[in-house]
Design a protein that fits this description.
heterodimer; A: alpha/beta; Udp-n-acetylmuramoylalanyl-d-glutamate--2,6- Diaminopimelate Ligase, Chain: A, domain 1; five-stranded mixed sheet; 5 helices; 39% helix; B: alpha+beta; Heat Shock Protein 90; binds adenosine-5'-triphosphate; binds magnesium ion
């Protein structure tokens, strides 16, 4: 599923929609960066409550599809600046990680 | 087999500079990518160099990150200015971390950085004293 389609189906608020509409190939949920670093893979959507600028560095290094910030966490402006610089899509939602994961399952991302 | 150093890329890593953290690793990744190195090797090096770089930012007084390119391997090296690792075996244990509450809130401190660096390496060397920590990690390149 393409990222924009995916964001639409999940009702995600775009904080920065990058100029790329790539295929989401998997999902990883996690808030501890060194665990995400070893588990998330290229073109995965990353669901997290982390909003710090270093999330963008992790997403860029792993070539993740996007960052999805859950629980309506406030995303720092410097994080979004970095996302724009590195062209990493960032979305936000009021839903919990569990709710997003359940929805993903429903729309066929398994 | 030759082990002549082809080129060294070096990055100065400042303590507590979270804004710049990851820049060195990102630059290494993009350089290796432009050289056509395979994706799985690049992923391993990205994980190793990022964890090494972040450890300098969080735990050290600052230092250098190097990427040494050889014909058949890549070494990721860090050297910092202290305070050193008191017990290396303990530091290499999964889940062991001395990260402060404030950096844990940012998602650091799982105690998985050094174990990951070791896991993704072909060779792992570490030496530490109060004057500083030296780490050299080797990733072998696949024959093409
Ligand atoms: N360059 C360094 N200088 C001093 N101490 C270090 C250095 N690198 C690691 N350490 C020590 O080793 C411990 C384990 O490091 P490791 O990278 O495995 O975990 P962490 O950095 O605490 O958490 P994580 O990497 O999962 O975010 C650190 O908590 C710290 O005490
Ligand atoms: Mg670490």
């Amino acid at each position: 599923m393409k990222i924009l389609d995916f964001a639409d189906k999940l009702n995600l608020d775009p904080l920065y929609e990058a100029s790329k509409d790539i295929e989401v190939e998997g999902v990883y949920i996690g808030d501890l960066l060194s665990i995400v670093m070893s588990k998330a893979k290229k073109n995965y959507a990353w669901i997290t409550i982390q909003t710090h600028i270093n999330t963008v560095a992790v997403a860029e290094l792993l070539e993740l599809a996007c960052i999805i910030v859950v629980e309506n966490m406030e995303v720092e402006e410097e994080t979004l600046d970095k996302a724009r610089e590195l062209n990493i899509p960032v979305f936000k939602t009021k839903a919990s990680a569990y709710e997003i994961a359940a929805k993903l399952y429903e729309i066929g991302i398994k | 087999m030759t082990d002549k150093l082809l080129i060294r890329y070096s990055y100065n890593i400042a303590a507590n500079d979270f804004i710049a953290a990851g820049k060195g690793s990102s630059s290494i990744k993009n350089t290796l990518k432009s050289m056509g190195i395979d994706a799985s090797t690049i992923r391993r090096i990205a994980i190793i160099s990022y964890e090494a770089e972040i450890n300098l930012v969080i735990h050290s007084y600052g230092g250098m990150l190097h990427c040494d390119l050889y014909e058949n391997k890549i070494d990721i090296i860090t050297e910092d200015k202290g305070p050193g690792i008191e017990n290396i075996d303990l530091a290499l244990t999964e889940g062991y971390s001395t990260a402060t509450e404030s950096v844990r809130e940012l998602g650091f401190g799982a105690g998985m950085g050094l174990p990951n660096m070791k896991k993704y390496s072909d060779d792992f060397d570490i030496a530490s004293s109060r004057e500083g920590t030296f780490i050299k990690i080797t990733v072998l390149l696949q024959e093409v």
